[in-house]
Write a structure and sequence with these properties.
With 426 residues, this protein is α+β, with helices and mostly antiparallel strands. The chain is built from 19 helices and 12 strands.
Length: 426
């Protein structure tokens, strides 16, 4: 925030350096346990309602840019931070604490490989579509085959899980990184491997999944040409790039004369607070000459709950370097969102449509408040139903989700798996 460097012990910073000290692994494990118990330990017990004997939270219909639900929030009046059931621990012991009432059953139903299937659908990738329509549906094995051809060779997809378990595990990280706009640098950073090795994996992946490459190229161009991301072609939901006008204003000034002047200043910029950087970029995008941007700027910082006004001097180098940094950083972020958002947006509208189908069924069959809607978590519904209709409602919920899947995913099936039990299963 202030433009100054500081030491960090965040996991993303120290995890790649775990080989330097045995304390790093222990520290990360400790911090994870500490966070888990502080968020989902006594805090959960404190939120059990005395009347209903249940835990209550908030669900926001438009909780994210992609239209997905979000959960949680704060109740300032009662000094309460609601639980986020979208990120609730999914280990069996924790989930088993959420049980159906007397005479009731708990049904969990979610899509089978929703994310991978949506990616196959929106990218129209031949290899992925063939896997889901005619093959095993094990996308991680397919990614392993594409990413590590020298190791996996011509091994059948069905045998990769047993014969090349390590490569299949590695493939999950590669798949996640590339499918959401990452490149060789992302793979190298995530896996802690040399950039040359990461580049080879990336190139292999893109050669194997030609539809993915064409989709990503198309999405990068579209978002920078139009300033928004089409989340789903059927629902027509859009996510707008909030600073598109600033980006285009900066880009307009990137002439050959600008670059000639910029090069000697590269790397000579001052450390400036983020608010000052943003002010320079905004004024630059509006056409204010660089020389006019030079001078003393004021900004506010909070110390001990008091606001303090500080000054900083902006140099000519700052007025050239920061707009360039801002443009390419925001361009990269927007392009990654353009690749990621249609997958998340399609999943969100699919889940909401399934929820509408379920609600209409409950309304039509006079089951409102007899069937209890407990936890909508990402692509999963958890409902509580009377024993006598448990089998029927399992099929109904499965059908509602499958029908919504078929509507938004036209090129391959979108199956939903349901489990009926006495507690939260998935």
């Amino acid at each position: 925030e202030t433009g100054e460097l500081k030491d960090s012990i965040e996991e993303k910073v120290i995890a790649p350096q775990a080989h330097l000290s045995t304390l790093i692994y222990l520290y990360i494990e400790y911090q994870g346990a500490k966070k888990l118990t502080s968020t989902y330990g006594q805090n959960v017990l404190d939120q059990i309602n005395e009347v209903s004997k249940r835990v209550h939270t908030n669900f926001n219909q438009l909780g994210t840019d992609t239209g997905r639900l979000s959960s949680g929030g704060k109740d300032k009046a009662n000094n309460l931070e609601y639980l986020n059931f979208q990120n609730f621990p999914h280990d069996a012991e924790t989930r088993a604490c959420f049980v159906a009432g007397n005479g009731m059953k708990w049904i969990s139903c979610d899509y089978s490989g929703q994310e991978s299937r949506i990616i196959a659908d929106v990218t129209n990738d031949p290899a992925m579509l063939d896997l889901f329509n005619n093959g095993s549906g094990d996308v991680h094995s397919l990614v392993a085959k594409m990413s590590y051809p020298e190791i996996v060779g011509d091994c059948p997809i069905e045998e990769i899980k047993d014969r090349f378990h390590e490569q299949r595990q590695d493939a999950k990280g590669v798949e996640f990184a590339i499918n959401y706009g990452g490149d060789a640098n992302t793979i190298a950073n995530n896996k802690g491997i040399p950039i040359q090795e990461a580049q080879k994996i990336y190139d292999n992946y893109m050669r194997g999944f030609k539809g993915m490459k064409a989709y990503q190229d198309r999405q990068r161009k579209f978002v920078m040409d139009n300033g928004y991301i089409l989340l789903n072609p059927l629902s027509l939901h859009k996510a707008y790039i909030y600073d598109y006008d600033i980006l285009m204003g900066i880009k307009k000034r990137f002439t050959s004369d600008f670059w000639d002047t910029y090069r000697p200043y590269k790397g000579k910029e001052s450390r400036l607070p983020k608010t000052i950087q943003q002010e320079i970029c905004r004024k630059f995008s509006e056409g204010v000459p660089n020389q006019s941007l030079v001078g003393v700027y004021t900004y506010k910082v909070k110390k001990a709950n008091k606001e303090e006004v500080k000054e900083v001097y902006v140099t000519l180098a700052d007025t050239y370097v920061y707009p360039v940094k801002y443009f390419f950083k925001r361009k990269s972020a927007s392009e990654k969102q353009a690749i990621n958002y249609p997958c998340q947006g399609s999943g969100a509208v699919m889940f909401k449509t399934a929820s509408i189908f379920l609600w209409e069924y409950l309304l039509e069959h006079d089951l409102l408040f007899k069937v209890k809607l407990c936890v909508p978590a990402h692509d999963e519904w958890n409902i509580e139903v009377p024993d006598e209709i448990a089998e029927e409602m399992t099929k109904v919920l499965q059908d509602c989700m499958s029908r919504a899947g078929e509507f938004f995913c036209r090129k391959l099936p979108m199956p939903a798996d349901a489990v009926c039990s006495t507690h939260w299963i998935h």
